[in-house]
Design brief:
Elements: H1 2-15, H2 21-39, H3 59-62, E1 65-70, E2 76-79, E3 82-86, E4 99-104, E5 110-114, E6 117-119, E7 121-126, H4 136-142, H5 152-155, H6 175-179
Antiparallel strand pairs: 1-4, 2-3, 3-7, 4-5, 5-6
Length: 180
């Protein structure tokens, strides 16, 4: 429906030369009446199927993002790189490996639910971000290696190099060198 309105309404307003917000608001009731006459359908039943909220219904919890986690042996649950430690007065073995529901509402408040009831918790600790895995070939691109100031290649020069001369004995058998 949004694509229809985004397509038809601006074109219709352009044809009617509506250029201000006041003119658009004045035209809106007429457009809605024409649109509903063209696209509206009569319901099969006139009975209202909506039910009223009860005292137990909690809209913030119903409209929250919910994920399930399994409680560890030390009563911790991890969600979005944060470890939550459940605080309880009952024996610790009762909640081990239990499935809890983590609810995040629109204000980013977090509620841990066990069998529909909220559990008290503390944030155990914020986990540090794990470093990236780097291929050995790319390691030098990230961390260039700088040799120490006294490294041999820094102190090397041609003037320090001792010249060596190779002498071949002339009196010896040179036929073995040529043939051999």
């Amino acid at each position: 429906m949004i694509q229809t309105l985004q397509d038809r309404l601006p074109k219709e307003m352009r044809l009617l030369k509506i250029r201000s917000r006041e003119d658009g608001n004045a035209y809106l009731p007429k457009f809605m009446a024409d649109f509903n006459d063209h696209f509206a359908e009569v319901p099969r039943s006139s009975v209202d199927a909506h039910r009223k909220l009860t005292a137990k219904d909690n809209l913030t919890r119903i409209l929250s993002w919910q994920e399930q986690r399994v409680v560890s042996k030390n009563l911790t649950v991890q969600f979005e790189n944060v470890v939550y430690q459940i605080q309880t007065e009952r024996p610790t073995y009762a909640l081990r490996k239990a499935v809890v529901t983590i609810c995040v509402d629109l204000q980013q408040n977090i509620i841990l639910l066990y069998n529909g009831k909220p559990l008290p918790y503390n944030v155990f600790h914020q986990q540090t971000k794990q470093s990236e895995i780097v291929i050995a070939k790319e390691l030098n691109k990230i961390i260039p290696h700088k040799p120490a100031p006294d490294h041999p290649w820094r102190t090397f020069s041609l003037s320090n190099k001792k010249s060596r001369s190779v002498t071949v004995p002339r009196d010896s058998d040179t036929s073995t060198l040529a043939n051999g």
